[in-house]
Amino acid sequence: MMDNLRAASNNVVLKIILALIILSFILTGVGDYLIGGSGDYAAKVNGQEIGRSQLEEAVQSQRSRLQQQLGDQFSALAGSEGYMQQLRQESLNNLIDVTLLDQYSKKLGITVSDQQIKDAILATPQFQTDGRFDNAKYLQSIQGMGYSADNFAKLMKQQLVSQQLAQAFGTSDFILPTETKAMSELLLQERDVRTATLDTAALAAKQQVSDSEAQAFYDQHKNSFVSPEQVKVSYIEMDAASMQGKSNVTDADVTAYYDQHKSEFGQPERRRYRVIVLKTQADADAVAAELKKGADFAELAKTKSIDKLSGKQGGLMDWVEPETTLPEFKSANLTTKGQVSGVIKSDNSFFILRLEDIQPEQIKPIAQVHDSIVDKLKLEKAVDAYYALQQKVSEAATNDNESLASAEDVAGVKATHTDWFTQQQIPAALNFKPVVQAIFEGGLIGQDGSPGSNSDIITVDGDRAFVLRVDAHKAEGFKPFADVKEQVMTLVKREKAEDQARMEGEKLLTALKAGKGDEALKAAGLSFGDVQKIQRTQQPSAFEQNVYALPHPQKDQPVYGLSQDDKGNSVLVELTAVNPGQLPDTETARFEQQLQQSSSNVTFDALLTNLRQEAKIKLGSAAQNQ
């Protein structure tokens, strides 16, 4: 049967079918496959009906997906009757393929349990938050796709069945060692070539171009000489940071702030404790009894405490402030130096405290914090002045909408004027997204490119703002021939040179194939260079493709061809040897796995093709109606 399936394959990987196995939105309507329909159906697959409602749901799902991907572009496509009919046909084909796979899976006895469905849903990344299943996100996601929890579970079941089917056929193929060897030798093949290059640039320098030829080239390639939209802009920039140096702060300001915010400059009370940590209540009671008899607290901490880190220090701990003091320490309510607590129970242990020292609350003197207060007040005044200036400049720019003159007076600076620039070459001082959008999309350009209105305040980076106007505008259009004549002349010369190089190359190729290549190459001032090793790359160039298209040379009989390099030069190629590739032993297993996957895809494609050929598929009236 596997041979038959291979023969049935058309060697086209049906990506749409694989996608429908993986993506739930293409599986629309699978849950209703077993429900009988009326005569108004979309298709019958081996007697199983696909109803009109199933097809309409599938089409709508496909429409929604495309609309999300394409946005406004989809509106133009949706207006095409032919395109929408094609979309409808693709949706129906997907439903037919799913039905065929469903039928075949049942024939093989492939089933999925409710627990497998649940596990698959819980493991879906789309339904997770921070790596854990999020029921709210799950419900929101499936409702957004138009499914109830029950219907989505049915779709998930069909997906799992289809995956098992694909895996069943994927593991049924195997690759012979001889196949691996032959394929690796082909893919890693290396070819020895020598080349002789006809320099197009040198030929271009000798070309002559008439004005009429240049004009004709320009007329045929106008789209290559488009001048992008350009603007000239004037703007006023306001920067909070630059205003900070202009703020004046007096000693009285500093004193007033210090008096009102002393809590910002204080150090809260700090305490230092010694601790003995015990494992059991009995151990803690015994240590407490020894302390009452006058035993040294530090010595007991060293010998009895199960907290070895503090025990080495005689139980001494770091200074703590009220915010960092443990609740158990606070509950001990120790108030004087040397005071010892009773036994205190913690979560997993017992401990005894002694208050070692107390540092009362302190306030830093004003001299120590003077400079920091000055900086803070300067910043606050600068920010206040910055926002006040924004307001004044905005009002001035709005009231005098014909220029930035009034805004300049209020801001106390002259506006900056730019030269012409495009949306692809924004001046660095204006290169902020909100500013660029305001210039090119904000309606600041008047009719026929005339100056328009002043902008509103445009804030960027939080502490910088602009007000601007477009002083002049050039719409996108074709560059005049006179402006691009030199460029056109260069292009025509290049085109002529490439044609000449190709013609000369073809003549030399004919001579080489006829055994007269040495004389022809010498006459042209050319010779073949040193041998190059050429190997296929993942994205082969035209040169590589041409080299690998040449037939294998016979012994001492090179094969010749003509190609082009990435500089546009014509290149004569002499192929002298084809060397089979060598696959490292360490890569053999992975290479075989890749071949296995490729073979499995072909087999699965062949299965689906075979199922379609053997199935009785009848289209109903709903297949065409829209």
From TrEMBL:
The source's domain of life comes to Bacteria
Q: Does the keyword Cell inner membrane apply?
A: yes
The topology of this chain with respect to the membrane is: Single-pass type II membrane protein
Q: Which residues form the PpiC domain?
A: 268-357
Enumerate the Pfam families for this protein: Rotamase_2, SurA_N_3
Task: Extract the GO molecular function terms from the UniProt entry.
Answer: isomerase activity
Similarity annotation: Belongs to the PpiD chaperone family.
The protein, known as: Periplasmic chaperone PpiD
Q: Taxonomy-wise, where does this protein's organism fall, top ranks first?
A: Bacteria, Pseudomonadati, Pseudomonadota, Gammaproteobacteria, Enterobacterales
What gene does the UniProt entry assign to this protein? ppiD
